[in-house]
Amino acid sequence: xxxxxxxxxxxxxxxxxxxxxxxxxxxxxxxxxxxxxxxxxxxxxxxxxxxxxxxxxxxxxxxxxxxxxxxxxxxxxxxxxxxx
Amino acid sequence: xxxxxxxxxxxxxxxxxxxxxxxxxxxxxxxxxxxxxxxxxxxxxxxxxxxxxxxxxxxxxxxxxxxxxxxxxxxxxxxxxxxxxxxxxxxxxxxxxxxxxxxxxxxxxxxxxxxxxxxxxxxxxxxxxxxxxxxxxxxxxxxxxxxxxxxxxxxxxxxxxxxxxxxxxxxxxxxxxxxxxxxxxxxxxxxxxxxxxxxxxxxxxxxxxxxxxxxxxxxxxxxxxxxxxxxxxxxxxxxxxxxxxxxxxxxxxxxxxxxxxxxxxxxxxxxxxxxxxxxxxxxxxxxxxxxxxxxxxxxxxxxxxxxxxxxxxxxxxxxxxxxxxxxxxxxxxxxxxxxxxxxxxxxxxxxxxxxxxxxxxxxxxxxxxxxxxxxxxxxxxxxxxxxxxxxxxxxxxxxxxxxxxxxxxxxxxxxx
Lengths: 84, 416
Ligand SMILES: Cc1cc2nc3c(=O)[nH]c(=O)nc-3n(C[C@H](O)[C@H](O)[C@H](O)COP(=O)(O)OP(=O)(O)OC[C@H]3O[C@@H](n4cnc5c(N)ncnc54)[C@H](O)[C@@H]3O)c2cc1C
Ligand SMILES: [Zn+2]
Description:
- The complex is a heterodimer of chains A (84) and B (416).
- With 84 residues, chain A is mainly beta.
- Chain A has a single domain (2-78), classed as Folate-binding superfamily (Folate-binding fold), CATH 3.30.2270.10.
- Chain A is 13% helix and 39% strand.
- In chain A, the strands form 2 sheets. Chain A has a 4-stranded antiparallel β-sheet. Chain A has a two-stranded antiparallel sheet with strand order 1-2.
- Chain A is globular, with a radius of gyration of 13 Å.
- Chain B has a domain at 26-81 and 83-108 and 182-252 and 343-383: FAD/NAD(P)-binding domain, CATH 3.50.50.60.
- Chain B contains 10 helices and 18 strands.
- Chain B has helices at residues 5-13, 41-54, 88-106, 124-140, 149-155, 182-195, 239-245, 308-321, 370-383, 397-400, and strands at residues 31-37, 59-62, 78-79, 117-121, 145-148, 170-174, 178-179, 199-201, 206-212, 215-221, 224-233, 252-264, 272-275, 280-284, 289-300, 330-341, 347-350, 356-360.
- In chain B, the strands form 3 sheets. In chain B, strands 1, 2, 8, 9, 10, 11, 17 and 18 form an 8-stranded mixed β-sheet that branches.
- In chain B, α2 links the parallel β1 and β2 (59-62).
- The radius of gyration of chain B is 21 Å and the shape is globular.
- The mean pLDDT of chain B is 97.
- At the A-B interface, β3 and α1 of A face β12 and β15 of B.
- The site of zinc ion has 7 residues of chain A, from loops.
């Protein structure tokens, strides 16, 4: 599997570490939202938005859309830009 | 059919032509007292204990594929009771005791072999942690021995004791741990449940729930609607999807875990040896194949196959701990979908839907749990109360803060 980092180009998956569902960039503003934010996941069988860290490259956080059934990578963007 | 030495001799002398299928292949009835979704180890054991312990025999197990096609037939068969936290300690202890009586209870050769589990440690700190864990296991009533480096060398001289990064300083030996034949466990429980009247229905996928006024009425399946007074879910890697059909939102991510087996060799590995720091563990099957594996592939996945970086990592870790295995040829590798929870421990509980019960989140440790899980889940479904061996595997523990996080890695499923 390869991820095409917007800054570094196509790189082997071993250069990246996985953090989990991209909902982690939507930090809740009230205490009530925190249980969901920390624990509950959609966990889809199919396209999934997720966070990867390019630790052995540019050090950027990436938001990757990837199919969890086929492992096909559908899109990669810098997490900061994908948020706004 | 009861198995006995006499039966084996008789069949052997008559060309083994008289063996019959071990369970029936019934058409689903229009309704059951209890429906269990998922014909893996947990679903089958639950049905068995519902019938055996609680006399509830109007039960169906609905399996979308075939018996043994899920994780129960894909795991590396390690059975142990060496957990460290309240909640898990008493549960796995309970399960191991059931393993010890399983073959008699089922009249089935599940090849349960208490050939020991040895965990290696590499530093003073890790040795202290092992000593603490050993004491926890002893207090629970299970067995544990802390071995010195020298004792580990006597036990398993083939290990690499002087690895630069992880020299072996000792180990934790659990003699009642070991391995079993995974398929036979599924078949044994299926046969035992069937003999007591449970319908095992394969090729029957649950596609929805019928819920009226917050109460379960039955399930929609690829073979039509089937009514039920109570429904238990035991669908392992598919827990999120099946839960969603009932409106549940769960603290689970699905990940793939791989395993490997080599060609058959003469006996060389005494029991199960784990090299936790390198993410590697190894045993030898009764056929002689070296069975080994390591960590998850680390990202969410529903593919029952893995990626090459994880293969490379497992092989490297194996070579650094047991250099001699480099001479063996790997025959096969495969993957299974793990229902990883946010604290690495399972969920055995009621759900907000009345009459719907949840058994899931087994992560990569659910094989050893099969008898215990079936036993306590049947108790919960039959009586409405938690069995005393499983009072802490609650669905709302994430919300209340009563998580059972053995690895202390927090809400990050791929690190458990
Ligand atoms: C490579 C690997 C190694 C492992 N090693 C170990 C080990 O050494 N020790 C250990 O303790 N554990 C181990 N495990 C974990 C263990 O295998 C699992 O935790 C356990 O088997 C899960 O429970 P089960 O047997 O009920 O699951 P499964 O056998 O997966 O059963 C679930 C069943 O539900 C069915 N299902 C799903 N959705 C539906 C639906 N909608 N309708 C009907 N049926 C449905 C599936 O087809 C499946 O058959 C390992 C797992 C893997 C993959
Ligand atoms: Zn980069």
